[in-house]
User: Fold [FeFe] hydrogenase H-cluster radical SAM maturase HydG from Candidatus Falkowbacteria bacterium RIFOXYA2_FULL_38_12.
Amino acid sequence: MKIIDEKKIIGILEKTKNASWDNFEKIIEKAKKIKSLDLEEVGVLVNISDEKLIKKMQEAAHEIKMAIYGPRLVLFAPLYISSFCVNDCAYCGFHQRNKAPRKKLSLNEVKKQVEILEDMGHKRLLLEFGEDPEKNSIDYVIDVIKTIYSVKKERGAIRRVNINIAATSVENYKKLKEAGIGTYQLFQETYHRPTYEKLHSGPKADYDRQITAMDRAFAGGIDDLGIGVLFGLYDWRFEVLSLVAHADYMEKNFGVGPHTISVPRFRPAPTVDFKAEHEVSDKDFLKLITILRLAVPYTGMIMSTRESPKIRRRAFEIGISQTSAGSRTTPGGYNQKKEEELAQFNLSDHRTLDETVYDICNLGYLPSFCTACYRSGRTGDEFMKYAKAGTIQNFCQPNAISTFMEYLMDYASPETREVGEKVIRQQMKNINSAEVRTNLENRLEKIRKGERDLYF
Ligand code: SF4
Ligand code: SF4
Assistant:
């Protein structure tokens, strides 16, 4: 089965240009029943420009998000480990043309960065490495993961390490699996082959190596897989249909769709002279998040601090279920006062984790530091079983409350603690099962007395 059929996608985008109102209504009704949408249905939504219909789509997306994930918003931090890279991707500050000195963290420096992140309250990291088979060998990557899991500062612990490394072999994916990673993320950047080939040079320029990476990762035993696109490289409509096609391919071939979809938008960076010909406006960006939420309801959606607080707030309502906070995008960045010259991209949200948590509470959402699923064996199709039955919330909601309580006790500022405790009281009421509520109340009491890491 071909993963991306460009001609077919372009044909669908053309064919669905003038879809009828009746057709639109049927698609929204189907989406509200939490059924994945097919490519033609996604094509219809992509072509909608009527503001009233877009509003209807957003309302449906919000409903779906709340039905599957509830009000929780999972927080994580990226940890840049090495900026050595043999590729020259036109849009990235780590490209080879950038002659600024490169940095690779020693294991001792990794430990120091992790201690800083633990002191902030983070429990979940996403590791970032440039591609360099010598400097960033798989053995180094594994040593970094082991080091991270071993760092325990006071009540701090990183409980889930997700990872973003270049496309590699089944053997190397097996090693990552054995090291206990959570999700393996790799973005196609653009699914449009001619654009992909134009914007890359180095080993990553091989489109087929990139697009088949998920197949090898799955063969290596990793079943929580994250895909994504860098929006702005090519027409977002084509990319959205391609993401849905890739998700469909994974579902059919692996029996499990992507665990997450990430939606980064191109951001400038020092030394990057790439000009996005297909820049995505804020309006289109929010629309594409809405469409993805409707099309692949069981897939978590991730947004980073590339986006401004304003866009992030709106995106949380319509589909984003995970977000980074308090991020730095340089190796060693967490103990530097400001971003260095060699950053992968510029950030738009410079708030601390505590400020972000405070804001999330005021928006009516529930910040979560949960890492329970992969530690309880709920990965791949086992995870999807709960997501599809709509019962994953029975885990997400109590785990969000207990991990948030830990955060409030150990790391929050007085203002955040005050608003956070109100959120917890409010969210306890949303737990329908009396048994779960009682169990959770007992756990919260234990957390108040000093126990940690209690999860469902
Ligand atoms: Fe290297 Fe990744 Fe940046 Fe490309 S996007 S230059 S592979 S770090
Ligand atoms: Fe994620 Fe599972 Fe925790 Fe829900 S219970 S937030 S799906 S790890």
Observations:
- The domain at 67-372 is CATH 3.20.20.70 (TIM Barrel).
- The chain has two domains: 67-372, 374-448.
